[in-house]
Design a protein that fits this description.
Elements (H helix, E strand, L loop, with lengths): L4 H16 L4 E11 L7 E6 L20 E4 L34 E4 L1 E4 H8 L3 H7 L2 E5 L7 H16 L3 E6 L9 H7 L2 E5 L5 H7 L4 H13 L4 E7 L7 H13 L4 E6 L25 H13 L3 E4 L3
């Protein structure tokens, strides 16, 4: 179940405690190896847990809460220890079995606090594949730059991976106040994959909580410091797929000095995750974009002078 604002604050406070210690830590749900669409080449992606924003189409609902949480996979459950009264928990599970004791792995603990040096070691295991394919390490989320403590931990992770010989990238909204020096972040990060979603500021704040003005101010600092930025444009039916939104995002990216946009057509890959963490999915049943619609959007983005890659690299 998604945590409350108090839970989010608690997560940030825990991360803050780590900064005061000798080592930084991050709450991570998964390290995805051999990823092909998160920054170019073969990549290992660390998914940080926690996001202050709420996009209705989010495909990683397991990364919304800032704290480790239990989830329940109904299809795996054999009902071996159901509650006598038939009641269920917030995720729909019919029992109180702890994840580590579930015989069918129907219950799972999402999120583990990891020290960044150990996490960097894991991410660098595939360094030969990175070197051969032009890949590297990507830090994603959730929102991997949510809060000052997390930014310092992510920066430390990027610096360790960079020092280990890996190319690095961040997937981020870049819509939170920067608490680390842009120059240092740029030195440790070879590519910033930055979201351009709902273009209109008022609607963006209402729908997702993201302030494009904060993103753009941060982008200006990153680009001034020499950062390489790719605009990531998720094309979501009813939210970001109209011509006005697409053109506004494309022209805004171009005006900031960005030269490439990744057009990311809507998909339903995250739909099955919502019920497992006790959340409703607002985009249920929405069909994917037709090929003709994707082509129309690509043409619009190209008309703003941007190079376009569909699905990203």
């Amino acid at each position: 179940m998604c945590c409350s604002a108090a839970g989010e604050r608690a997560g940030e406070e825990r991360a803050g405690e780590c900064v005061a210690s000798a080592r930084h830590r991050l709450c991570v749900t998964n390290v995805q190896r051999f990823s092909l669409h998160d920054g170019g080449g073969i990549r290992s992606v660390a998914f940080t847990k926690g996001c202050p924003f709420r996009c209705p189409w989010c495909c990683n609902p397991e990364n919304l809460s800032f704290e480790p949480e239990e989830c329940w996979h109904e299809k795996l459950c054999c009902g071996c220890s159901a509650r006598p009264d038939g009641s269920r928990d917030a995720n729909g599970a019919p029992c109180d079995t702890q994840p580590e004791r579930c015989p069918m792995a129907a219950k799972e603990l999402l999120g583990t606090w990891r020290e960044v040096d150990g996490l960097a070691d894991e991410l660098l295991r595939d360094l030969p594949f990175f070197e051969e394919s032009g890949g590297g390490v990507t830090v994603s989320g959730g929102e991997c730059l949510a809060g000052a403590a997390r930014q310092r931990a992510v920066l430390a992770l990027l610096e360790l991976c960079h020092a280990g010989g890996a190319s690095t990238a961040l997937e981020t909204t870049l819509a939170t106040p920067l608490a680390v020096e842009p120059e240092r972040l740029v030195a440790a990060c070879d590519a910033f994959l930055v979201d351009f979603k709902v273009a209109d500021r008022k609607r963006s704040l209402a729908v997702t909580g993201i302030d494009p003005a904060v993103r753009d101010a941060n982008l200006a600092r990153i680009i001034e410091a020499g950062g390489r930025v790719v605009a990531r444009m998720p094309i979501i039916p009813g939210y970001t797929d109209d011509d006005a939104c697409v053109l506004a995002n494309a022209h805004r990216a171009a005006s900031l000095g960005i030269r490439r946009a990744d057009v990311l057509p809507f998909h339903q890959l995250g739909e099955g995750k919502y019920s497992s963490v006790g959340l409703d999915y607002e985009m249920s049943g929405v069909p994917p974009l037709a090929e003709a619609d994707v082509g129309r959007i690509v043409s619009l983005v190209e008309s703003a002078g941007l190079e376009v890659v569909v699905h990203g690299e």
